[in-house]
Amino acid sequence: MKKVVYWLMGEKAGRTLVGAWNWLWGIPVESGGKVAVAVAEESLRSMQESVQKLAQAVAMQVGSYEKAKQKYEGKVQEFKHFEKQAAIAQRSGNEDAARLAMTKVIQVEQLLPQLETQVKQAEQYVQASKEKLNRERLKLERYKTDMQNMKDLAEVNEALGAIAKVNNEFDIGSARSSFESAKSAVQSRNLRNSALVELSENPMEKLTADLDSMTLDDEVSRRLQMLDSSPPKQLSD
User: Fold this and answer.
1) How far is Cα 192 from Cα 185, in angstroms, rounded to an integer?
2) pTM exceeds cut of 0.90
3) CA–CA distance, 62 with 194 (Å, rounded to integer)
4) Side-chain half-sphere exposure of 17, counting CA atoms within 13 A
5) Distance (Å, rounded) from C-alpha 230 to C-alpha 222?
6) How far apart are CA 166 and CA 16, in angstroms?
7) Reduced to 3 states, what is the DSSP secondary structure of residue 230?
8) Mean of the per-residue pLDDT values for the chain?
9) Among residues 105, 106, 132, 140, which is most buried (max CB within 10 A)?
10) Is the model's pLDDT at 16 over the cut of 60?
11) CA torsion angle for 60, 64, 70, 71 (degrees, to 10)?
């Protein structure tokens, strides 16, 4: 299924889609959290597959190089063998055998430079492929470390998000601020009401009331003194 998606949409878009699809089957979280981690994991799996394929290709190159090298070394041995046969036949006076052996020497001798060039090229290709494989493996290891760091960072971000959520739900500071505002408003209203009461009173009326009260008190005191100084009245039969 994944290969079909990659073929239809291209590797980059397909990798993102597969990562998002994998995430949808998990626990949904805020954007930029596990979605990004899922896409990164899918990318890492693709890189691992690519490195594995590259390793297989390098192994095939090494096999082909070894086969070409063996073929070249075999031809070198043939060259030496035919050369030795020609020498023996020449010393034995067998002209025909010497000429046949020398003919083979010349044929192999003409082939050896081509084989040697091909073997050297194959060796260079293999060496370059091995170096590339090593580089890609090192990159893959770095990406694996980055992947783990990314997971750790995503977990920390999730924990911080949970902490922020709790702080928002239990914002005591906000409640304290509201209480202080309410307290200040009540106190301000009390001061305003007191000022209104004072302003609503008529100073002259208050002074008149105070004087009337004082006059009444004096009259009451005078009458009581008169009762003490005068004899009691006799009631008539």
Assistant:
1) 10
2) no
3) 101
4) 14
5) 12
6) 33
7) coil
8) 77
9) 105
10) no
11) 160
Average pLDDT over residues 139-154: 84
Residues 97/89, Cβ–Cβ less than 8 Å: yes
Find the angle CA(134)-CA(39)-CA(3) to the nearest 5 degrees: 75
Tokens of 31: 């954007």
Asked whether residue 30 carries a pLDDT value surpassing 50, the answer given is no
The Cβ-side half-sphere exposure at 186, using a 13 Å CA radius, reads: 6
Rounded CA gap, 43 and 79, in Å?
53
Q: Tokens 């091909």 sit at which residue? A: 118
Which tokens hold the place of 2? 């994944």
Distance CA 32, CA 148 (A): 16
Length of the chain: 237
pLDDT at 24: 43
Main-chain phi, psi angles of 235, to 5 degrees: -85, 135
**Opening angle at CA 232, ends 227 and 237, nearest 5:** 145
DSSP secondary structure, 150-161, as one string: HHHHHHHHHHHH
Structure tokens belonging to residue 125: 């290709």
Residue with tokens 């783990």: 148
Q: Which residue has the tokens 């594995």?
A: 52
